[in-house]
Amino acid sequence: MRTRVAVVGLLACLLVSAVVKVKAQQPPAAGALLSDQVFKNVQVMKGIPVDQFMATMGFFSASLGMSCEDCHMADDRDWSGFAADNARKRRARQMIQMMQKINADNFGGRQMVTCWSCHRGADAPRTVPDFNVQYGPLQAPDPNAVVAQNPLSPMPDEVFNKYVQAVGGAQKAAALTSFAATGTNLGYGPESTDQRRTEIYSTAMPLRRSVVVHTSNGDATTTFNGTNAWYAAPLRPVDVLTLAGQELAGAKIDAMLLYPAQVKSIAPRWRVGTATTIDDRDVDVVQGNTADGIMVSLFFDQKTGLLTRSVRYTDSPVGKLPVQTDYSDYRDVNGVKMPFKLLQTGLDGRDTFELTQIRANANPEASRFAKPAPVAPPKK
Ligand code: HEC
Ligand code: HEC
Question: pLDDT digit string (tens) for 87-138?
Fold first, then answer.
């Protein structure tokens, strides 16, 4: 479902970089295809799952305000082109090593300094303080920060109870055991003009979720079957990618977020930080860490009690990788308020889902949650 940026070529070769192996934050999970098994010229970020590796590319692009083609002479119709080295790509490799060394030498290996810390969306980091920032209007606090329980904020249970009340009450919420939804999906950038049909299938017990987007190049399918998760899509380096580790755990969280009765059990403990605002609405921020080490932030509208945003952060060798979902257009489905609009934002793309119909308790057939088949590549 992630948007890929279309790529054109440039650049030439220079320089040689030292090779230092970067330690992954988490041991790779069994079953995950690793970066250096799939890609031809991985020298630094070896041994990490392929989807995590691809997300680090989104992290680079976001941190430097670049797109893929700024560092690669390549096109997503032929992934082998990304292996070629050039001056900027080598520079980026050196930067990963520099960053790791800064963190190792000064912060006990914790990821305190990342590409974003210095670059802030630009190729050349600023060196002189900016008067516009010093004397400009006060900036709103970064809603992505780690929060601690604020003694003046409500306790987590209060916020969760209010949420379940707001969607229709515990009984109604528990009675939602499955659904099938249809609607449209819009990507970002070049994909934002193409309205694509989309379907979402889910069951609460066992917890399963499958999202299908019918793109002009073929179906993009993300499926979690309760135990395993896959991502199958056209024009990807791996046609059917098995998710593992935190990426698999993230797919489970995405499924739990569909059921208000399950949201609280995403993490064993929660904390409620200082209230903040999203789109001028006051929200309570509830944060927890799952057993798999994923930090999750949930934002609940103080007035309506409804969930307006979720953000989950998975680890990578270059920094935490956020995936954010914004929920709106809540409508009644069988006595339960469900969001009909979902805006999913990641480092490598943004997708808007606008649902037209949600059929509660549709009990989708088991085949909807089977491992997706590879998508035939589109004709060149
Ligand atoms: C700031 C520079 C930079 C940007 C921007 C960037 N990459 Fe990379 N890319 C790298 C570096 C450096 C490596 C090699 C990493 C290593 O050796 O561990 C790499 C490696 C890759 C590889 C592996 C190629 C192979 O076969 O060895 C792929 C695929 C890739 N990038 C895709 C992308 C995509 C897609 C984007 C845009 C979302 C992107 N990159 C953005 C720097 C960049
Ligand atoms: C401690 C600060 C710092 C960190 C952390 C950092 N950089 Fe840099 N980076 C710089 C500076 C300074 C330059 C040089 C800018 C110049 O020469 O104008 C630079 C230059 C670059 C360039 C060359 C840009 C160009 O104009 O071609 C790339 C690519 C780059 N960094 C990638 C990264 C990546 C990827 C990361 C994270 C893995 C990272 N940097 C982390 C400070 C940093």
Answer: 999 999 999 999 999 999 999 999 999 999 999 999 999 999 888 888 888 8
Give the span between the Cα atoms of 289 and 270, in whole angstroms: 8
Rounded CA-CA distance 16/85 in Å is 10
CA distances from 49 to 132, 156, 191 (A): 41, 33, 26
| Residue 121: CB atoms within 10 Å | 11
Residue 212 C-beta-side C-alpha neighbours within 13 Å: 17
User: For 208-250, what is each residue's pLDDT tens digit?
Assistant: 999 999 998 999 999 999 999 999 999 888 999 999 989 999 9
- In this prediction, residues 286-299 reach a mean pLDDT of 96
pLDDT in tens, 140-157: 666 667 888 999 999 999
Q: Which of 118, 127, 320, 321 to mutate to test the pocket of ligand 2 (most atoms within 8 A of CB)?
A: 118
Ligand 2 contact via 125 beta carbon (within 6 Å): yes
Residue 368 near residue 77, CB atoms below 8 Å: no
For residue 96, give the ligand 2 atom closest to its CA: 38
The closest-lying atom of ligand 1 relative to the alpha carbon of residue 58 is 38
Tokens 């609405």 -> residue: 281
Q: Is 37 in the pocket of ligand 1 (CB under 6 A)?
A: no
Tokens of residue 80, six digits: 């082998």
Q: Is residue 340 within 6 Å of ligand 1 at its C-beta?
A: no
Q: To test ligand 1's pocket by mutation, which of 7, 15, 37, 89 has the most ligand atoms within 8 angstroms of CB?
A: 89
